From TrEMBL:
It catalyses: malonyl-[ACP] + acetyl-CoA + H(+) = 3-oxobutanoyl-[ACP] + CO2 + CoA. The active site is at residues 126, 260, 290. GO terms for molecular function: 3-oxoacyl-[acyl-carrier-protein] synthase activity; beta-ketoacyl-acyl-carrier-protein synthase III activity. This is Beta-ketoacyl-[acyl-carrier-protein] synthase III. GO terms for biological process: fatty acid biosynthetic process; secondary metabolite biosynthetic process. Its main location: cytoplasm. Belongs to the thiolase-like superfamily. FabH family. Its EC number is 2.3.1.180. GO terms for cellular component: cytoplasm.
Length: 343
């Protein structure tokens, strides 16, 4: 039974239709901002940033780059990885749309030459990738489409106050994408269970004020770090437990726990609380910082490159972020080659 206020679902019959991971693509802006660059501007130290977050560098896109540019690159890379030229739909997860209207996904579909497929955005902040994957899996298993490109693209440099040491040291720009296709739950790569939840009582713990809330002055992103930290550990561990239960997997059997890359200490605390072997928790935050919705596909690609993620590994993705929102997904890792580019 899912916990109150949270929804989980599983594909417990192996012959059932399922969404299957078929491709993985990523894209990062070329410019790296090292801790030393920030120490020169802010009242902070390399030691504080590394010890409190695990971050050594993050990427920042140039002014001429849009969220949609990064999304298109990552999406094209995921299609290449899947060996596909067309898909049946596009779902984009982003917290940093280039403009309030329209959604970014239709233009991404157009620029990628995908035709007039259904395309829309999902706004679930750092949980956006898992939410978008769950929506895409629903479209596939209900027979609406046979494949979906799920893209997560973020340009936090557009919403972060460069002089706020509480957020400027943490967040970075980047994009990641996956192709999901229709298959069966028996296949490697099949998404076997999802758990999603939200708690709007914490809506103001991570937020960017609207025009009415703050008519004058810049409207920057803000985060109540310590409060969010505690909720993140609690909810990612609980949500992961629910998908493990749905799959009948023990924590020790998890080959790769891939949490949202918010903070190295949060990742270790979640693994510890669950009883997942610490070496099996993927922590790739050092090079790219917290890229919000894009962090899970970027972490997947990094873990694949280092061999931490291998075909057949029991893999659990788990995310937490603004809303507050959280979500987890379970799959066995398929045989695939990720495609990466820099922009
Ligand atoms: O991605 C969406 C979800 N996000 C998360 O899950 C993030 C959750 N939160 C965090 O990762 C951590 O709370 C932070 C990294 C944001 C902060 O780390 P913390 O260990 O929770 O520190 P804190 O906020 O309790 O602050 C401790 C001290 C404070 O000083 P005082 O009050 O003790 O004098 C802060 O002012 O550290 C100070 N501080 C800094 N010092 C140097 C805060 N930021 C910095 C900084 N450099 N960049």
């Amino acid at each position: 039974m899912p916990a109150a206020g949270s929804t989980s679902s599983s594909r417990d019959g192996l012959g059932l239709p399922a969404a299957v991971l078929a491709g993985l693509g990523t894209c990062l802006p070329v410019t790296e901002i090292h801790n030393a660059d920030l120490v020169a501007l802010l009242d902070t130290t390399d030691e504080w940033i590394r010890s409190r977050t695990g971050i050594a560098a993050r990427r920042r896109a140039g002014d001429e780059v849009s969220m949609r540019d990064l999304a298109c690159e990552a999406g094209a890379n995921a299609l290449r990885s899947a060996g596909l030229e067309t898909v049946g739909g596009v779902v984009l997860a982003t917290t940093t749309p280039d403009r309030p209207c329209p959604a970014g996904a239709p233009e991404i579909a157009h620029r990628l030459g995908l035709g007039q497929v259904p395309a829309f955005d999902v706004a679930a902040v750092c949980s956006g990738f898992v939410y978008a994957a769950a929506v895409a899996a629903g479209l596939i298993t209900s027979g609406v489409v046979d494949s979906v490109l799920v893209v997560a693209s973020e340009l936090y440099s557009r919403i972060i106050d460069p002089m706020d040491r509480g957020t400027a040291v943490i967040f970075g720009d980047g994009a990641g994408a996956v192709v999901l296709r229709r298959g069966t739950a028996a296949e490697q790569g099949a998404l076997l269970a999802f758990d999603l939840g939200a708690d709007g009582s914490g809506h103001d713990l991570i937020h960017v004020p609207g025009e009415r809330e703050q008519p004058d002055g810049p409207r920057w992103f803000s985060m109540a770090g310590r409060k969010v930290y505690l909720r993140a550990v609690e909810q990612m561990a609980a949500s992961t437990s629910r998908v493990l239960k749905d799959c009948g997997w023990s924590p020790e059997a998890v080959g790769a726990l891939v949490p949202h890359q918010a903070n190295g200490r949060i990742i270790q605390a979640v693994a510890e609380r669950l009883g997942v072997p610490p070496g099996n928790a993927v922590c790739e935050i050092a090079r790219v910082g917290n890229t919000s919705a894009a962090s899970i596909p970027l972490a997947l690609a990094a873990a694949l490159a280092t061999g931490q993620l291998a075909p057949g590994a029991r893999t659990v993705l788990t995310a937490f972020g603004g809303g507050l929102s959280w979500g987890s997904a379970a799959l066995t890792w398929p045989q695939l080659r990720a495609v990466h580019s820099e922009f």
